[in-house]
Amino acid sequence: MSETVRIPTFEGDADFPAHVARPEGTPKAAIIVVQEIFGVNADVRKKAAHWASLGYLAVAPEVFWRQAEGIELDSDVPEQFQKGVAYMGKHDMDAGIRDIEAVIRWIRSHESVARVGLVGFCMGGRIAYMTATRTDIDASVGYYGVGIADMLGESQAIAKPLLLHIPMADGFVPPEAQGRMHAGLDPNPHVTLFDYEGLDHGFAAEHGERRDEAGARLADSRTEAFFSENLG
After folding, report:
1. Domain map (residue ranges) of the chain
2. Does residue 150 carry a catalytic annotation?
3. 201 part of the active site
4. Alpha-carbon distance 110 to 94, whole Å?
């Protein structure tokens, strides 16, 4: 079962929409699914439905709600891709992390689900990293996160498990940045990095031209095992 709910902000001065997919029976844990720059589109809803099928409560907040609600873009359409880039350029990442804190609090209080993980893609991959450094999330996973190499000074705050999937042919995260990520994060016992030779940004998208079937299946299997181990 899926529905759209509204979640109060951390400050309590507004609320924002989130897509929720519920499992059959009592959730074993919850997973926050953080979009790419294309909104809570069919890709995101499919990922949420998959987590619900595995017994998790899945919550996908609309990250760009301060700019507009109901954004659904297609990454394979150039004009829509550029709209997503424009939304990302105007997004307040610090406010966005407070929104993630609000979702965590809503899940634990309103839904009575204690253990919460997060999986994010592209910009959401960066949000996964920031969530690991700035909140009490129980476990986080980032796919092809952008800008993480410039935030390694926060890594000492990581106290819960974090998994990052790094496609080595990612044009948005060049080899030099990948090297800095490994140098800064490999020594941290809470962090696991997986490299994917030859794969590009967006390889785990559910639809469209960017998806690499073998790479997506491998990364997703690792993510499922990670959450099974760290969330139960």
Report:
1. 2-231
2. no
3. yes
4. 24
